[in-house]
Amino acid sequence: MTKSEAQTRSEIIDQQLALSGWNVNDPTQVAKEFDILIELAGPRALFNGHQFSDYVLLGKDGRPLAVVEAKKSSRDAAIGREQAKQYSYNIQKQVGGELPFCFYTNGLEIYFWDLENAPPRKVVGFPSRDDLERFAYIRRNRKPLTQEFINTSIAGRDYQIRAIRSVLEGIEQKKRNFLLVMATGTGKTRTCIAMVDALMRASYAEKTLFLVDRIALREEVKAIYQLFALLSSQEIDQFKSWYQANNDIESACANDTATQLVRYADIPAAYNDLSDRLRAKILGENESKYWITQVLDEWKEEGKSPDDFLRTLARQTLKNPLAEANFLKMPFLEACRTKGVFDAADPM
User: Fold this and answer.
1) How far is it, in rounded angstroms, from Cα 3 to Cα 303?
2) Which of the chain's termini has less CB crowding within 10 Å, N or C?
3) Which stretches are transmembrane (predicted)?
4) Element at 262 (helix H, strand E)
5) Does the pLDDT of residue 252 top 80, yes or no?
């Protein structure tokens, strides 16, 4: 049975708004049949009168955040696009302030339009009031991306900087989809993190969804995010230099702990403990990722459980702590086991 527009609104759209936290019966949140007064001068005065927007979603300050134009479910939602656009501009003209966001829907499909900033796009539901207010804040406060600084302490290679800059310029050109193809070991994770960092500083993003296909990558990304959140840029640069120094030590004097202490003699006492040197090691492009993958691969291919792996590693660490950075590898993998990383990845 075909639903009328009134039925589509009451039986479908009202419920969709409610799922996002909007109380359609509360006039301080949702204004139904919002009256828009049209006042034109000259010959166009013939078109003066009233328009009625199906829904206007209101902010906590009572000002319009978004217009929702509804059509019955048997019609194409796009039929309401121009109406929704006109309502948004006319509401801004009537009440002042910022241009409301624009939605048009037939109950089965919902389209979101940030007028003057991006083309319409299909969405799976309505944003909450907090989400819309955050969108408005971002739109109001964002800075030009083409001039935004890229933190080279996170991703400083020429090709990484070019990739990030290309994406930032594309976003300013109102593009939404990007694909970066990078070989193993070229710093994909760091490139993404530096890009997110630039977007956040430019107020283009407040939250980021980071999808990975393996738990090991999740732990790597999480560790790097947490690390950079805690450290200043000067500390990051210092840790990177210590990390490189440690690699030199491992290759030049694998069993000479005295030499290691000499090489680390300039490290302030506050950073001279194992946990902070572990942070420095995690800054390596692929180190922590490789360690976790090594455990999982031996588990899957040779049946060697993480407990067995760590027992063997503990013996190797006691015998030769500097070989393959065992003095860092051992506590890192122990921490992974404690957090349940390997439990979640059980290949059986």
Assistant:
1) 59
2) N
3) none
4) helix 257-263
5) no
Q: Say if residue 237 is in the same domain as residue 338.
A: yes
Q: Are 281 and 332 in contact (CB under 8 A)?
A: yes
- The answer to whether residues 257 and 171 belong to one domain is no
Q: Please give the tally of structural domains in the chain.
A: 3
Query: Which H or E element spans position 40?
Result: none
Residue 149: give the domain boundaries: 145-209
d(CA 118, CA 147): 20
Q: Check if the beta carbon of residue 94 is closer than 8 Å to that of residue 59.
A: no
Q: What 3-state class would DSSP assign to 196? A: helix
Q: By CB neighbour count within 10 A (0-12 exposed, 13-18 middle, 19+ buried), where does 259 fall?
A: middle
Nearest to 186 by CA among 213, 159, 149: 159
Contact 107, 88 (CB under 8 A): no
User: SS3 of 313, please?
Assistant: helix
Q: Is the pLDDT of residue 288 over 90?
A: no
pTM, full prediction: 0.60
Contact between 70 and 54 under an 8 Å Cβ cutoff? The reply is yes
Mean pLDDT to the nearest integer, 155-179: 90
Say if strands 121-123 and 110-113 run parallel, antiparallel, or are unpaired. Answer: antiparallel
- Regarding whether 334 and 242 lie in a shared domain, the answer is yes
The confidence band for 333, taking pLDDT boundaries of 50, 70 and 90, is: confident
Is the domain of 283 the same as that of 205? no
Give the closest residue to 298 by CA, choosing from 287, 313, 285, 284. 313
Quote the tokens at residue 135. 């969108």
User: Is the domain of 205 the same as that of 168?
Assistant: yes
